[in-house]
Design brief:
Radius of gyration: 18 Å
Largest sheet: none
Structural class: mainly alpha
Order of helices and strands: HHHHHH
Length: 180
């Protein structure tokens, strides 16, 4: 964590926007409800920068490549600004590695927090019909269902989130040295 408040503020705002862009990508990949009010907020927040990119770069199947490019651009700009403020400079290959690793790290972080919310909701409000709860379910369920195919059924106990949390934690530790 940096002690410089300008860098802290820059990273916080940039990472928040990166979170929104990655959330839009995940919502599209999981085919979450587009008419959910939270989905609509994400679309409105990302459209100003995403629509011009989408005119140039088409989607590949279900993958919204414009969202991927925007996420990479936001991450690259954040890295470049933070390092410039600190007085560092990297070569092009280092910027590419830091950008890809940082974007993947934040995507894993998005899934970590979404899954944590999912687990808490399963304890305090199972089957909740709140738009946020429904969106969390739509984002996490494809991941849980893939893990349930590997982990045996233990009655009413779903261990899939534990193994996914472990996988995310290991991957984040591997990527952490490359995150600015």
């Amino acid at each position: 964590m940096s002690s410089d408040p300008v860098i802290f503020l820059l990273k916080t705002l940039a990472n928040f926007y990166l979170f929104i862009v990655l959330l839009r990508l995940v919502l599209q990949l999981t085919k979450a409800d587009f008419y959910n009010p939270i989905s609509q907020g994400v679309v409105k927040a990302t459209n100003p920068l995403l629509l011009p990119i989408r005119r140039i770069i088409p989607s590949i199947g279900r993958l919204d490549t414009a969202s991927v490019i925007l996420a990479l651009i936001v991450q690259l700009a954040t890295i470049a600004l933070v390092l410039a403020l600190k007085g560092y400079q990297l070569n092009a290959m280092q910027y590419a590695v830091f950008t890809l690793a940082g974007t993947l790290y934040h995507l894993l972080d998005l899934y970590f927090w979404t899954m944590l919310i999912s687990v808490i909701l399963s304890w305090v409000a199972p089957g909740a019909s709140h738009p946020g709860a429904m969106l969390v379910h739509q984002v996490t369920e494809p991941l849980y269902s893939q893990m349930r195919k590997v982990i045996p059924n233990l009655g009413g106990l779903d261990l899939s989130p534990i193994f996914i949390f472990l996988g995310i934690s290991v991957l984040k530790q591997f990527l952490a040295p490359f995150v600015v």
